[in-house]
Design a protein that fits this description.
- With 392 residues, this protein is mostly beta strands.
- It contains two helices and 22 strands.
- The radius of gyration is 30 Å and the shape is globular.
- The N and C termini lie far apart (81 Å).
């Protein structure tokens, strides 16, 4: 009996203690904060350390939507046939793009080690040319994934996929969207380049390049006559294309010169550019190019018509959010291009640009090139586009 009473009493005591504890508030220790991302501000905003490494990484890109209208040109409207009566007519040219960019940086005993990549995913009209009676060339579809940049840089040495130094070192031809109505050079290439920066505004560069793409144009035959042909812009031997450049920049602007040798076609080309910051609101530029055509009418470094071409224009800033941009281009083949736009930043990172483009093909189809090389539907064409772009 005493043992039974003792057991019952012990059980009751345990239940009482358990009940009392259950009635107390449960206290859970807060976890210590874990540092998953460590900010790296050495190379600018947006970089963070890759966990467990000394490498800084930044991820960014943009979403873009273009709607082109008017005559057929590089960035303008499209042509199609009516589904019911087959009549050829104008239509919109649309393109949506997602561009993914990455940057890395790390300090080493040999200097800063950097990388940059940009990959573009596009959906829109599948071709730049109206093709066939059914207008199939203007079908909307996924129109390709392109690797636009993938390079490694250590100090002044850069290797990988980039745009040609012939264009990037001088700078693009203005802040208009369609800046290649009269083209000033091709872009995509593998390269090995080295940039020397003296630190006083003077810099110089040398680049060994592979080239890319091809043209339907005119070439000289064995009898020194112009005949239709295809110019392949990729090197055809162990000898690379060579680009040399020099630049001097100050607060007032700058002057830049580049010269390029095309090893496959044994042609030379060069450009000189002057930039002037006229006021805090107005920036102007003018650029001239000259290239040989001994063996081919158009090549990787001389895609314009004839031997010489000129580009000029500028930017006027109404305020911090809105700017007016213009460019005029002309070449020896009497091709004239004009592009004007207004760009407005609605909110930080979101810009709307409306542009009007005009092209006049001076010597359409004559023997320095083959047919309508600008892609315009008529000798004199006008069109434009509206662009929405969100950068992040």
């Amino acid at each position: 009996m005493n043992i039974k009473s003792l057991l019952l009493g012990s059980a009751a005591a345990l239940l009482a203690v358990s009940g009392a504890r259950a009635a107390d508030a449960v206290v859970v220790a807060e976890p210590e904060p874990a540092e998953y991302v460590k900010i790296c501000d050495v190379y600018g905003a947006g970089y963070f350390y890759i966990p467990g490494t000394e490498t800084c990484l930044r991820i960014g890109g943009y979403i873009r939507y273009d709607a082109g209208f008017g005559d057929v040109g590089s960035f303008d409207g499209a042509r199609a046939n009516d589904r019911l009566d087959g009549e050829e007519q104008d239509t919109w040219r649309k393109q949506a793009r997602f561009a993914l960019k990455t940057w890395t940086g790390q300090e080493t005993e040999l200097g800063t080690l950097k990388t940059y990549t940009e990959t573009r995913f596009n959906f829109g009209n599948s071709s730049g040319d109206y093709s066939g009676p059914d207008g199939a060339g203007w079908d909307a579809r996924n129109s390709g994934i392109t690797l636009n940049y993938a390079w490694i840089q250590l100090g002044g040495l850069r290797v990988g996929k980039d745009e040609s130094v012939f264009d990037t070192f001088t700078g693009y031809a203005g802040n208009v969207i369609d800046d290649t109505i009269v083209p000033y050079g091709e872009f995509d290439t593998n390269l090995i380049s080295y940039t020397f920066d003296a630190g006083n505004g003077f810099s110089a560069i040398v680049s060994l390049e592979q080239g890319s793409g091809e043209y339907n144009t005119f070439v000289r035959d064995a009898a020194d006559n112009w005949v239709p042909g295809v110019v392949n812009n990729t090197i055809d031997s162990a000898v690379p294309n060579v680009v040399l450049g020099a630049k001097y920049t100050q607060g007032w602007g700058g002057i830049t010169g580049v010269v390029a040798y095309n090893s496959a076609w044994e042609e030379w080309a060069g450009k000189v550019r002057l930039d002037v910051n006229a006021t805090d609101q107005i920036a102007l530029f003018i650029m001239g190019g000259y290239g040989t055509d001994d063996n081919a009418a158009r090549t990787f470094y001389k895609p314009w018509g004839g031997n010489w071409a000129v580009w000029g224009g500028g930017t006027y800033k109404f305020n911090e959010k809105t700017s007016l941009n213009a460019q005029v281009s002309y070449d020896e083949q009497e091709n004239l291009g004009v592009a004007v736009n207004v760009a407005h930043q609605l909110v930080p990172g979101f810009t709307v640009t409306a542009e009007v483009d005009y092209v006049n093909e001076g010597k359409r189809g004559e023997a320095d090139y083959l047919g309508s090389w600008t892609g315009a539907s008529d000798e004199s064409s006008i069109g434009g586009l509206i662009r929405f772009q969100r950068d992040f």
